[in-house]
TrEMBL record:
Post-translational modification N6-(pyridoxal phosphate)lysine, affected residues: 243
Record-stated family: Belongs to the group II decarboxylase family. Sphingosine-1-phosphate lyase subfamily.
Organism (species): Nocardioides soli
Protein name: Glutamate/tyrosine decarboxylase-like PLP-dependent enzyme
Keyword Metal-binding among record annotations: no
Length: 486
């Protein structure tokens, strides 16, 4: 049979059928039961509008705004909405990026390039800063000075400024969070940003999580520490649209206080025989779909819609915090300022088993490994859609803790634990990694696969140093990402 011309080799529906079959193994993105990675408004019409807008603009290219002026209009509309939300002065400008990591990368790159006189730039960040900033430091050759946080898990202003003053001439950026991902608390921006400004140093607020929800929390009368452009010295803010803007993946905003603050972010190059390259982000060609999807969702919900969704998500957060406090063996690590909740177990059970038990009951919660004396935790990113199932969630959480207590804490073979403790990831061979992956339960019989229950794997990783965790997981991912042939 000929397959030339316009006739496909397979029925057009085959690929879509195959997609649906593969997707059945994924975590659900709707229903409010996946408390990591996705953010669900619970509004089917809003989701539909976002999907249709993405599809309508999937072929458009954001490389040249003069070729697709509708994309430029949508971007300016979104920046304007966010500028009002974040107390931006009349001078605020901004850019739509592919996600929070790109916004963070650009904040660091822009700060670095604003100081061409500095040979070895550095930035000061709290230990709770998102790893995207350490990625930016790695990519852009900026030294990251990581400062321990206080007992309240917030950035320590005195320690942060002492780190700045240790080398103010090379310091190009100070970063704070609103809120930090791991613990859901807002750093003391009001104490840090003005002090950075007095030293002539930029201050970026990472509000990728909180940017679209904390302003409404304040309107609802919740106690939210100041963190927006209303705070003197805040020079840029990142805020994700695909988190609590409830837009399709992947869109974020990077806002700057003035055009002068943004200018180093641009890249232009004309010294070659092709078109003059002009980019406002790390990407050149970029689909207009995510931008259109975000614009359509924000326009559909509007200020009133977001306030209502924020009311729902905070009602869910309050219920989870109160309910978790009543479960023996479980407590809230620190009262959250935002929509992220970190739970900690006592010695009667371990959090990794609780996470497995929650998964068995249809709830996905995220384990966070221990760090610098801080305990391992159970992390929940609460969405508006979670509110409808809060009672079920709390029942599942109570039952999961009881099951974990009955099972007892996960233990790692003492010989394996001792072996992990002395390993140097810099000297391990591929064969060593293969053996460790097998010991971790991440490989067996020549195949790579995640076990149905991850408690033992996480307990083993929890014993490893951060560098060893990184090396093991990189080795695992490297072996997962191999081509399908034939």
């Amino acid at each position: 049979m000929s397959t030339t011309g316009s006739h496909p080799a397979h029925h057009p529906g085959d690929a879509l059928d195959r997609l649906r079959a593969m997707q059945a193994a994924d975590l659900p993105v709707h229903g409010g039961r996946t408390l990591a990675y996705v953010y669900d408004s619970g509004l089917a019409d809003v989701d539909r509008i976002g999907r249709e807008a993405v599809a309508a603009y999937a072929g458009s290219n954001g490389l040249d705004p003069t070729a697709f002026p509708s994309l430029l209009q949508m971007e300016n509309d979104l920046v304007g909405f966010a500028a009002d939300l974040l107390d931006g002065p009349a001078t605020v400008v901004g850019t739509v990026t592919s996600g929070g990591t790109e916004s963070c990368l650009l904040a660091v790159q822009g700060a670095r390039d604003s100081r061409p006189d500095v040979d070895r730039p550095r930035m000061v960040v709290p230990s709770t800063v998102h790893a995207a900033f350490l990625k930016a430091a790695h990519y852009f050759g900026v030294e990251a000075v990581v400062v321990p946080v206080g007992a309240d898990y917030r950035a320590d202003p005195a320690a942060m400024l002492a780190a700045v003053d240790a080398d103010p001439e090379r310091t190009v950026l100070v970063v704070v969070s609103a809120p930090s991902y791991a613990h859901g608390v807002v750093d003391p921006v009001r104490e840090i940003a003005p002090a950075a400004a007095a030293r002539g140093i930029r201050c970026h607020v990472d509000a990728c999580i909180g940017g679209w929800v904390l302003p409404y929390a304040a309107r609802l009368g919740r106690d939210v520490p100041p963190w927006t452009f209303a705070v003197e010295g805040v020079t840029s803010i990142s805020a994700d649209l695909h988190k609590y803007g409830y837009a399709p993946k992947g869109t974020s905003l990077l806002l700057h206080r003035t055009p002068e603050h943004r200018r180093p972010q641009y890249f232009a190059y004309a010294d070659w025989p092709g078109y003059t390259m002009l980019n406002s982000t790390l990407q050149s060609t970029k689909s207009g779909g995510p931008l259109a999807g975000a614009w359509a969702v924000v326009r559909s919900l509007g200020d009133t819609g977001y306030e209502l969704l924020s009311r729902e998500v905070f009602e869910a957060v309050d219920a989870i915090v109160a309910g978790a406090t009543d479960i023996a063996g479980l407590s809230v690590l620190t009262p959250p300022d935002s929509t992220l909740v970190a739970l900690v177990t006592d010695g009667s059970c371990d959090p990794f088993t609780v996470c497995d038990e929650m998964g068995a009951r249809g709830w996905y919660v995220q384990p966070q490994l221990s760090y610098a004396g801080q305990p391992a935790t159970i992390h929940l990113s609460v969405s508006a859609a979670t509110l409808a199932g809060v009672d079920d969630l709390l029942t599942a959480l109570s039952d999961s803790v009881a099951a974990a207590v009955a099972a007892g804490p996960v233990t790692v073979d003492p010989e394996v634990a001792a072996f992990i403790g002395v390993l140097d990831p810099n000297t391990l061979t591929d064969a060593d990694f293969d053996g460790l992956l097998a010991a971790a339960g991440l490989a067996g019989g020549g195949d790579l696969a995640l076990p149905e229950r991850m408690a033992e794997v996480n307990a083993m990783l929890d014993l490893a140093s951060p560098r060893m965790r990184e090396a093991l997981l990189v080795a695992f991912l490297d072996r997962l990402q191999r081509p399908s042939r034939g």
